[in-house]
Amino acid sequence: MEQGDNSQETRIPAHVAIIMDGNGRWAKKRGLPRTVGHAQGAKVVEQILEDADDMGIKYLTVYAFSTENWARPATEVKALMNLLRTYMKTSLAKCAKNNVRVRVIGDKSKLDADLQDSIAGLEADTAGNTGIGFQIAINYGGRDEITRAVRKIAAKAAAGEIRPEEITSESISDSLDTAGIPDPDLLIRTCGEQRTSNFLIWQCAYSEFYFTQTAWPDFTKKDLEEAIDAYNHRERRYGGLIR
Ligand code: FPP
């Protein structure tokens, strides 16, 4: 796990994860359909990705659609999937220009076949990029991700490829969708709620949490800077003592 250094100047977290909450409330306040809030939210994602890159953040992970979000009205689910479809189709040129490497985390097997194809295409076409790593969580749930990882490990054990005592915290991390990506240093949640909602529950064991009242569609580089400023006032001890 990479950890931010503890020098006096501003520490930029290597990995920032964001629960982008409040699209619906943002729209309702303006008398607009919830889907307009999601569309505005998608624009903000693109801007914040650029801002994060400019600030030197190495990995950005956003929660776009949870395993629980299927319970929303069919029209809203469809609108969200269409936004993601559009993103996968239109973002390649931008990713190439900005050297962004995209990875979708979550159970992709439950997504429509065309969306799975677009995701596979975007991941493959950006795999060689060396700039910011952009993870988009779609049909993602932390418990689901851990369950899938445990199944993979159990299958290896059943096949005699590994012994149970060889299973370690690292081998579990390596079996998650985020394999190879350092754990988030900072988890941001917008729009007032203070819970993790099943997002990166294994990976955020030692992450700093930052909650803001700002709704996601209103989130700007200034909000990101404020979150990083708060992060800089935290003392990370990873279970150890104050140095
Ligand atoms: C939470 O707001 C937000 C979501 C469930 C969806 C987030 C998705 C996007 C911002 C679009 C993703 C696009 C890309 C390109 C990654 P909410 O609907 O729960 O808001 P509410 O709590 O105010 O009702």
CATH top level assignment: Alpha Beta
Q: Write the CATH fold name.
A: Undecaprenyl pyrophosphate synthetase
Strand content: 5-15%
Question: What's the CATH architecture name?
Answer: 3-Layer(aba) Sandwich
The CATH superfamily is known as Decaprenyl diphosphate synthase-like
Number of spatially distinct domains: 1
Helix-and-strand structural type: alpha/beta
The helix-strand sequence is EHHEHHEHEHHEEH
Strand order of the largest sheet: 3-4-2-1-5-6
Shape: globular
For the biggest sheet, the summary is: 6 strands, parallel
Could you give the distance between the termini? 20 Å
Structural overview:
By secondary structure, the protein is an alpha/beta fold. The protein has one domain (13-141, 183-232): 3-Layer(aba) Sandwich (Undecaprenyl pyrophosphate synthetase), CATH 3.40.1180. The protein contains 8 helices and 6 strands; from the N terminus they run βααβααβαβααββα. It has helices spanning 23-29, 34-55, 74-90, 92-98, 113-126, 142-158, 169-173, 221-232, and strands at residues 15-19, 59-66, 101-105, 133-140, 186-189, 208-211. A 6-stranded parallel β-sheet has the order 3-4-2-1-5-6, with helices on both faces. α5 (113-126) links the parallel β3 and β4. The longest helix is centred in the N-terminal third of the chain and has 22 residues, at 34-55. It is globular and about 60 Å long. The two termini are 20 Å apart. Residues 20-25, 38, 41-42, 45, 62, 64, 69, 80, 83-84, 87, 136, 216 line the site of farnesyl diphosphate. Farnesyl diphosphate binds next to α1, α2, β2 and α3.
